[in-house]
Amino acid sequence: MRQYKTYLFDFDYTLVDSSNGIVMCFRHVLDKHGYKNVDDRAIKRTIGMTLDDAFALLTGVSGREVLVSYRKEYVAKADVCMSDNTILFSEVTNVLQALKQQGSKIGVISTKYRYRIMEFVNRHFPAGFFDIVVGGEDVSKAKPSPEGVWYAMKQLNSDTRDCLYVGDCVIDAQTAQAAALDFVGVLHGTTTREELLAYPHIAIIDDLGTIRVK
Length: 214
Fold this sequence. Notes:
This protein has helices spanning 19-32, 40-44, 51-59, 64-81, 92-101, 114-124, 147-156, 170-179, 193-197, and strands at residues 6-9, 16-17, 87-88, 105-109, 132-134, 163-167, 182-186, 203-205. It is 43% helix and 14% strand. The N and C termini lie close together (10 Å). It is globular and about 50 Å long. The chain has nine helices and eight strands. Pfam families: HAD_2. Belongs to the HAD-like hydrolase superfamily. CbbY/CbbZ/Gph/YieH family. Keywords: Hydrolase.
């Protein structure tokens, strides 16, 4: 795998395992409103989607006002418990440090709110460790729209030839495809190798330690 000048990463199930926190927050809302038949795996399969889309899928609700109210209840719960129930994958710190040492820029593009990402990042990394973090509140259209990727590339003065996007799910693969970026899929989450192989990719890897750095 060649060296890139810029590496853009998804957050959940790519850099971190936030599944415990996410399940707790969804369960808090779903149980409250009587959706007790939704299992944890179904919840985990929505990681990477916007909260509104995830709740619509899990509950069958389509009304905008109801979905917004569910999202607000989720966010209030996440304010209390998300960061404490999120952990870095074991290889991530070493990989990111190596990328920075080789002179590459690194960033995060996520549907998760930027302030939530930064709450976690500030606990585990020095200030300014990431060159950019783009969250759900920073874009008008969520992934797989390339808006967030293009915004990050503009801020970092990067171009498509020298930028790699790394993510764990189909939404990430679609985002990279829409942005015309090379894509590496990582199998940290619930998306299978076969699902990712259906999209253009440089590699599908078991963990980020497979990203070779010089």
